[in-house]
Amino acid sequence: MSKILENLRYADSHEWVKLEDGIATVGITDYAQHALGNIVYVDMPEAGDEVTAGEEFGAVESVKAASDLISPVSGEVLEINEELEDSPELLNEDAFANWIMKVKVSDVSEIEKLLDAKAYAAICEE
Amino acid sequence: MEETLIKTCLHDRHVKQGALMSPFGGFDMPIQYDGITQEHNAVRHEVGVFDVSHMGEVRVKGPQAYDFVSHIFVNDVTGAPDGQIFYGMMCYENGGTVDDLLVYKVNDQEYFLVINAANIDKDVAWIKKNAEGFDCTVEDESPKYGEVAVQGPKAEETVERVLGITCKDIAFYNFKTFEVDGEEIIVSRTGYTGEDGFEIYGSHDYIRRVWDILMEAGVQPCGLGCRDTLRFEVGLPLYGDELADDITPIEASLSMFVKLDKPGFIGKEALATQKAEGVRRRIVGVELEGSAVPRHGYPVLVDGRKVGEITTGYKSISTGKSVAMAMIDKPYDKLGTSVEVQIRKKTFPGKVVKKRFYDKNYKK
After folding, report:
1. A41 in contact with B at a CB cutoff of 8 Å?
2. Residue B107 has what pLDDT?
3. How do residues B272-298 score in pLDDT, each as one tens digit?
């Protein structure tokens, strides 16, 4: 059974979002890291890049396959988690503690369209 | 219409043991049990077992079996002792590859061919068509056989001690047949991992028993995921990636298996011309800086221009490096050539290297 945190929002493409003061911290869920297996590379955007809700912003690579990362929010990338460049396996160790990017959100209402913990848990059980 | 996947004789074991299943070559096969990395390392350092029952088996038998095998096989089986095995390809007249295969020499009048799962129908039709006029029979025995591969530095000890099969005296690329409970089994010192190991062929019942005994003994079950990472690291080709209908063995950098000095065989003329005149493209290794992962189909660029494509790529489990095999146009195939690989929207620098990323550890 994968871990799901109560206080986060989720996309059905298995990213999590935490919104604080108009800044969204984005990562992948425990379910996603488990499904991917050993993560060997994270392809991340750069600070200053624009991301769009529902569109690809990078990829997570396991031994076998590359999976697109889909941005749950729109806005400007403020920061990426540089630790993941050298240690992508941190996502396997704790997917919620190791965020991927921080975004200055252009439309905070987008968050409302995302799933809450309960609705996301239902998707994972399907 | 949905394709009906074939189940191997071990299918119920895979499902019960919780393997991740996926279609491969028309079969529903286990991709991984406990993770590709763990399974890969088990084979490199200890021992692991694969279900390879999806492989096809074809028996060629008759007074002209030797002549016929020589006619369709690019390697040379002439003068080989009984019990020897050859790796090589069957080619079309134009040199393109029908399949790569193992040829087991039972005796001058009987050969046992092991072919790729995805190519069974194509190969059998092609072999039968070309056998016309030869005094020999061609029998597709694929449905009859189950097969497991026991691979790794502890494979010999495992096969001897756990399975009770005397295999110490089987030399590399040789096989023996045994009788167990009245049925014939074949044990060869072969594999597709770059490690020492054995492949065991037998009835479905026998192979199920073998699997259960190995599981009971705690041998790591391995899926096709690590079979691919293991074969890749030691530079072995996979049909569909490095070999295809439109890729010749010369282009695949496998000319050491093409014996142009033997009498006529299908494709000889085209392959001889290619070897004499040189190929326009060939399979080489590529090593990337950094750890982005090159994968099948990604473009290889020089000065922004496409000069080839990745055929197989991984972040190597054994070495940690991002490496690939790639089909690259001349003259960019030279060792040390600077190239870039396009991975999604970005390009990553790298260079052409030998297509062996890890040393084989065969017991010869």
Report:
1. yes
2. 97
3. 999 999 999 999 999 999 889 999 999
Q: Give the pLDDT score at B364.
A: 78
How much is the ipTM here? 0.83
Point out the residue among B291, B292, B317 whose CB comes nearest to the CB of A63: B317
Work out the angle at residue B314's Cα, subtended by the Cα atoms of residues A85 and B6, and round it to the nearest 5 degrees: 130
The full set of domains in chain A, from first to last, is: 9-125 (2.40.50.100)
Report the alpha-carbon distance of residue B238 to residue B170 in Å, rounded: 26
Question: Across residues B146-175, what is the average pLDDT?
Answer: 97
Whether the pTM exceeds 0.80: the reply is yes
DSSP helix/strand/coil, B159: helix
Q: Using an 8 Å Cβ cutoff, are A9 and A72 in contact?
A: yes
- Alpha-helical (H) ranges within chain B are 11-16, 36-45, 65-72, 120-131, 155-161, 204-216, 224-233, 268-277
pLDDT in tens, B180-229: 888 999 999 999 999 999 999 999 999 999 999 999 999 999 999 999 99
Of the candidates B291, B293, B317, which has its C-beta nearest A66's C-beta? B293
Calpha distance B177→B201 (Å, rounded): 9
Cα(B349)–Cα(B254) distance, integer angstroms:
27
Cα–Cα distance, B123 to B287 (Å, whole number): 34
Secondary structure percentages of chain B, helix, strand, coil, to 5: 25, 35, 40
Q: Which residues pair with B153 in a beta bridge?
A: none
